[in-house]
Amino acid sequence: MARYDGEPLNILHTIGLKILYPVVRVSLHFNGLLDRTRFEGALDAVSTVVPELLCRYDLATNQWVQVTDQVSDLILDNVSAIDEHAAHWDLMTEPQLRVYWNQQNGNTVLTLYISHILTDGAGSKQLLYLLAQAYKNGSEALSGIQNLQDVSWLEQLIKEHPQNEDWQTDHPAKPLLLPKLDASGPVEYHVGRVALSALETKQLIQATHAAGVTVNDVVMGSFGRIMQQFSGTPALSLACPTDMRQFTQFPKHTTQIANMTSRYNFSFETDVDTPLLDLIQQVHQEMAVRKEQRQCLDSVASLLSQYHSQPLAQLQQTAEDHYHVREIAYTNFGIIDAKRLQFGDVSLDDLVMTGGFRRAPMYQIAAGTFDGQLSLAFNMQGTATEKNFGMALARDVANAIRYFTAATLAAVK
Questions:
Q1: What's the CA gap between 217 and 220, in Å, rounded?
Q2: What's the CA dihedral at 249, 252, 253, 259 to 10 degrees?
Q3: Residue 167 reports pLDDT greater than 80
């Protein structure tokens, strides 16, 4: 069977496997039935571009080892308890993609589980775009496309980047923590989601322009405010993932299904009663300073600089020091381009992207905008009470975002 070398940032997602299994979860609801044969042909074309999908991950060598040459092995039919079933997925022995194929009321519903050891959120979006392109236009649409996983450009960028020792740690002194509920009952897998309407999302964007901030600043500031209220900590400490692909130009006819994400870390003292609009401005300023100094490179600098000289155990410890699994986490998948997710004459009505399943009271909000609507979603292992608490948190974040929009637009009238 074939072997393929991994890239250094695969190692980031091999830490804390017992706490958080490294996956990207995507649910797609279609208005109609997909053609199964056509879909398998598209998936086969994608696996030609990204053969690692058909591989297991060899942790000892950071390599991908082929375990099948049939994309039909990646598709599972009519599984009812999808997330419970996926909890037994082993990336060290099985392929790096699972496609759960179901039908609901005459419509196809797909749930994709993508290995986060293989690729990050931005790479997962590129994988979806390839799949749609091949389904819509045939496998020949991917002819000539190459997947570039090489990060030598990033290693060179790290060498040229002056590291700030004060920003090396990713272990804040006063982390955000949610209270553990006294909640009895069975622990189950839950996916929760709150969405702003298309109009609310449009108005949010208008408000960010008026306030001179980004949508990411608003969502992260709103999330931080709600988490701090329940945490009771005098500091706001968050990590914001960012796509490092922005720092280079890739050749045409390539895709980058790999791990090329790092973190901006910030922590600052703030009173829980600080006005939300002021807090969002402070988040914006903290992020602006870190973007200007490319602080995100610090979170992966040690791993990349040591990759060719240190044993795996040392590299994993380095990753833990600078990229550990936080109890309270935030991620932003950004805009998921609906125009690039056209599957022929079958329309895609809804899409939700999330990360791995966290055991409550761990909690992560995953933001993403699809077809003009901003969603806040989370995956949780917890009781029904804990899931309801998670939904209440997501609604509070959404309401804080709505408050920012209304207050900002009212001030500029």
A1: 5
A2: 0
A3: no
What pLDDT does 13 receive?
93
Q: How far apart are CA 50 and CA 347, in angstroms?
A: 25
Nearest to 24 by CA among 393, 386, 379, 391: 379
pLDDT given for residue 169 in this prediction: 54
* pTM assigned to the model: 0.96
Q: Which residues contact 211 (CB under 8 A, 6 or more apart)?
A: 277, 280, 281, 404, 408
Positive or negative: CA dihedral 5, 7, 11, 14: negative
Measured between alpha carbons, how far is 132 from 344 in angstroms, rounded to an integer?
8
CA distance 326 to 410: 36
What ranges in 98-181 are assigned the alpha helix state H? 121-137, 152-160
Residue type, 409: L
Residue 224 structure tokens: 């931080």
What's the average model confidence in pLDDT over 339-359?
Answer: 97
- pLDDT confidence tier of residue 383, bands split at 50, 70 and 90: very high
- Given a cut of 90, whether residue 312 has pLDDT beyond it is no
**Interior angle at CA 166, CA 165 and CA 168, nearest 5:** 65
CA 10-11-15 angle, 5° bins: 125
Q: If you ran DSSP here, which 8-state letter would residue 243 be given?
A: E
Residues 6+ apart with CB under 8 A from 81: 189
